Amino acid sequence: MTAPATGTLPVTVSFTRRADPAHAAEMTAWIRSGLTLAESAPGFLGGGWVRPRGGSDEWHMLARFDSPATLTAWEASPERSWWLGAAQGLAQVTRTEKRTGIEGWFDPPESTEAVDHTPPPAGPPPRWKQATTIWLVFFPLNLLATVTLGALLADVFVVWRVAVVTLTLTPLMTYLLLPWITRRLEWWLQGRSWRHRRG
What we know:
Layout: E1 11-19, H1 24-39, E2 44-50, E3 58-65, H2 68-75, H3 78-85, E4 91-100, E5 113-114, H4 127-147, H5 149-152, H6 158-184, H7 186-189
Parallel strand pairs: 2-5
Antiparallel strand pairs: 1-3, 1-4, 2-3
Helix pairs in contact: 1-3, 4-6
């Protein structure tokens, strides 16, 4: 897997396709084959799909790449072109969205096949839910850093002290705590009841 360009953020693309409910088996096979092909693409971080509810004909799919460049390369690849061509007459694109940055953590979960009682993804959660989720991990982490690193660096010039603390906290938040908390609160962020949470 190639490394993303310096300073780039992962990007999540979500798209909705409409298909005749009578062709659910064909759609399932087609989606799975697309995810299998994407797994070998440079920069691919994960993907998933959600089946339609009841009589709905909309299928929701996700793919996450480590940078816009690797997503663009996948979109232009012959493998993806072949995969899209296989859906001619089967599925119709109705909506495509791309998101980068911190909101990527609040996208519907990756590598999941939702059961029928799970509502389809409706975009990112409300801002207040995102802010609450971030605060739930930022407050205890910042408190711990204040009483440990802050105390150790009490005599250091304030700019350098803040730089050390933020350089320590940012990777912990981005790669460990935010993914952990959003997995635990995914049911709440997506507006489902607690009993419909995943695992």
